[in-house]
Amino acid sequence: MLPYGRQTIEDVDIEAVTATLRSDWLTTGPQVDAFERDLAEWTGGVPVTVVSNGTAALHVAYAAAGIKPGDEVVTTPMTFVATASCATILGAKILFADVEEDTANLDPAAAAALTTERTKVIAAVDYAGHPAEYDELRKVADEVGALVLADAAHAIGGTYKGRFVGSLADLTTFSFFPTKNLTTAEGGGVAAADPELMKRARRFKGIGMIREEAEYANPNDGGWYYEVQEFGVNYRLPDVLCALGRAQLTRLGAFKARRTALRARYNELLADVPGLRLPVERDWVDPAYHLYPVRVLDGRRREVYDKLRAAGILVQVNYIPVYWHPAYAELGYQRGMCPNAEKFYAEELSLPLFPTLTENDQDRVVEALRTILG
C-alpha cells in the first residue's frame, strides 16, 4: 500500500528519543526549551511554545487572542474542522469566507466582505503548504482592529515574500502529526512575536499557572506557591517527543527540498494527462509542500479515488468544507455559501507526497492516473 503521507523516521530520531528516555526528564524538562529555541530558527526568530497537537495549538492561539462569546472569527472552509471549531468552543461566531479559485487559500476580498466591528480574528490556512496572502489579509484585519492567525499546519519551513512562515501573522499554529513536514508523533506549536500574546499562550497551555511572584494576587506562601488567575488546560508536549522533534528539525531543509523536487516531477509527468488540473504556485512564495492536490475534472473524482485506492494507492481528499459538517449545519450554516471552496472540494485529490517516496512509486501513481483518465 502506498499512502498519501508518511513519517520519515531514521536512526538519529530513535537515538534522540532513547537518550531522553534514559535521562531524568520525560516531560517539562530541557528538551522542551531546546525544541522551542530550535523552532524559532524556522520562524525568523519569532518565539514558539510547543503543545500536544495541532488542534491544541489552535485552541491555545484563539485563547491567547482573547476569543469570547460574541466575538467573530473570519476563516476559510477549506481546512480541517479544528481551524474553526477551536474558536467555536470558545463562543465565537464563525464567518466562512470563500477561497481563491486556484490556490484554495482564503480570499482576502471575501474575508473583507465579512468583517465587522465584532471581528476579533481573521484565520487563514496555508493550504498544502502554500502561504496565504498575508499582506492583503493584514490590511483587512487592520481596518477593523482584528488579529491575523495563520494555521500553518502544512507550511513550516516555507516563506512568503522572503519572510518565514511563523512571522507573517500575529499568531501562527503548527502541527507535527506524522504526515506533516516534520513529526513529533503528536504535537504542535504556537508562534507569536507579541510578548503579551505569547505569555497568554504559555499560560493557557499550562493550566493557567502563574509562578512569577511579581504577578501574584495574593502573598507568596513559599517555594511551592503558584496561582491560577485565568483557567487553562494541560497541552504540554513532553521532552521525549520534543527530542524527536529536534532530530527531525535538523533535516527539515532536506525534507522540504525532496518534497519540492517530487512536486516538480509530478508537474512534469502529469502535464499532459487529460482531465487533471495541477496545483499552482505564486511567484512570491517558497512553499513547504505538505500535499500535492490535483483536481479531477468532469465529475470523475470519486471514480479516480476508488480505482486508485483499489490499486493500493491510498490517495486522500483534503478537505470537506467545514460548514458541511452536521455540527455546523445544526448551527444554521448552509451549503452554497462558498462556491469556490465547494467546487474545489468536488474535484480535489491528494496524491502521495512524502520525502521517502521513490521515483518508481511516483511513476506508479502517474501510470495509474493515465490508465484511468486516458
Low-confidence stretches: none
CATH topology of the largest domain: Aspartate Aminotransferase, domain 2
> Biggest sheet, open or closed, and with what strands and sense?
7 strands, mixed
Please write the CATH class name of the largest domain.
Alpha Beta
Strand adjacency order, main sheet = 2-10-9-6-5-3-4
Number of domains: 2
Gross geometry: globular
Distance linking N and C termini:
23 Å
Query: Structural class of the secondary elements?
Result: alpha/beta
The overall pLDDT, averaged over residues, is 98
Q: Report the portion of residues in β strands.
A: 15-25%
Run of helices and strands: EHHEHEHEHEHEEEEEHEEHHEEEHEHHEH
Helix percent reads 25-40%
- The number of helical runs is 13
How does CATH name the architecture of the largest domain?
A: 3-Layer(aba) Sandwich
Number of strands: 17
What does the radius of gyration come to? 21 Å
Describe what you observe in this structure.
This protein is of the alpha/beta class and 374 residues long. It has two domains: 2-249, 3-Layer(aba) Sandwich (Aspartate Aminotransferase, domain 2); 252-373, Aspartate Aminotransferase, domain 1 (Alpha-Beta Complex). Helices cover 36% and strands 16% of the residues. The chain contains 13 helices and 17 strands. The strands form five sheets. A seven-stranded mixed β-sheet has the order 2-10-9-6-5-3-4, sandwiched between helices. A three-stranded antiparallel β-sheet has the order 8-7-14, with no helix packed on it. The protein has a three-stranded antiparallel β-sheet with strand order 13-15-17. The longest helix is centred in the C-terminal third of the chain and has 19 residues, at 252-270. It is globular and about 75 Å long. The model has no long low-confidence stretch (mean pLDDT 98).
